[in-house]
Design brief:
There is one protein chain. By secondary structure, the chain is an all-beta fold. Strands 1, 3, 4, 5, 7 and 8 form a six-stranded antiparallel β-sheet that branches. The chain has a two-stranded antiparallel ribbon with strand order 2-6. The model has no long low-confidence stretch (mean pLDDT 93). The chain is globular, with a radius of gyration of 11 Å.
Length: 70
């Protein structure tokens, strides 16, 4: 589970994500679960913090970010 903050738009369960490092894609995956305020949810809006359960093809490192698409 990764801690995250939604910078733009809305993050939804089952979105496809691209793991980015230094503005280059280093992995892909899908969101398997979302949590906001310690409650399971299907979406998280801009400005909110959340927990993201994600299956990725590459291990995230500090400073990485995810770009999500439906």
């Amino acid at each position: 589970v990764l801690g995250a903050r939604v910078e733009r738009g809305t993050l939804t369960k089952k979105s496809t994500v691209h793991l980015m490092r230094n503005n280059e894609e280093v992995g892909k995956g899908t969101i398997e679960g979302l949590q906001a305020q310690k409650q399971a949810t299907t979406s998280v809006s801009q400005g909110q913090e959340c927990g993201v359960q994600v299956t990725l093809s590459s291990a995230p490192q500090p400073g990485d970010y995810m770009a999500a698409f439906e």
